[in-house]
Amino acid sequence: MPMRLGGGNLLFEPVEGWEKLPAGWSFIDVAGVAVDGKDNVYVFNRGEHPVVVFDRDGNLLRSFGEGLFSQRPHGIHTGPDDSVYCVDDGLHTIQKFSVDGKLLMTLGSPNQPAPKWQGKPFNRPTHVAVSRVTGHLYVSDGYGNSRVHKFTPEGRHVLSWGEPGIDPGQFIRPHNVVIDKDDRVYIADREAHRVQVFDANGKFITMWNNIHRPDGICLDAEGNFFIGELNGMGGVDDAPGLGHRVSVYDLQGRLQTRFGDPEEGEGPDQFIAPHGVAVDSRGDLYVGDVAFTIRGRHLNPPRHLRCFRKFRRIRA
To answer: 5-28+114-314, which class in CATH?
Structure first.
């Protein structure tokens, strides 16, 4: 019998060997994953081919972005028209592409970060999401800022909110952003171990606490909110049960289920550092893992570890 993960009506089974990579290709780290309207899967990774696109059966369709990114690809998102938005925290930019990889727009100046902690776009941004109501872009900004920025679809800056801190509306490290159908904005405030919820103009609504370093977040069509939780911080980074798991919440912030062995690893029910999550129209889950950055480069000798997973949704 196949391994089952999760609980209740949120059950998943690992799909081993789903992605069909050509000989000699590798991901190294998968920082982000996105799915378009045809259930094609975009894997944003730190290998030689930054954006690798598969159909829902794992067949390679194309790759793009070669030579356009730093060593720090970080977040990827598909908009309502299937435009592809790629966030590079090393370049301090958000790049918008067509589905076939044509560059359409760049937000930010490559290799020219805004002054650290001053709140202006961008200093090591982490993710972007597009409102399906208005088309506005929301950027979490991220490692060198404690800020969220809102832009028009054409790239004009509208407003920003947030500052360093632990109070509502403040951030320690805004790491990911999701917009729901009612235009509420969900921010993974990673080092504060919480998700904060805002209206479309940055007014604080509520927060969900006690989530271990929420890293990747996504929302499915049923209102299930998936959260990839990163492993522990320095000194406890290999502690069992601190992160390296996926948790599922409802939109009222109630935990529904979670899965991931308490011990990190490369097994079918294990993670090392889940960093990007995405769900397709059938509810299947894709998880990108920055396993080399977090663990593999520190091994002796350094080793590339498993960094991408698919889990098929099991329905009654």
So the answer is: mainly beta
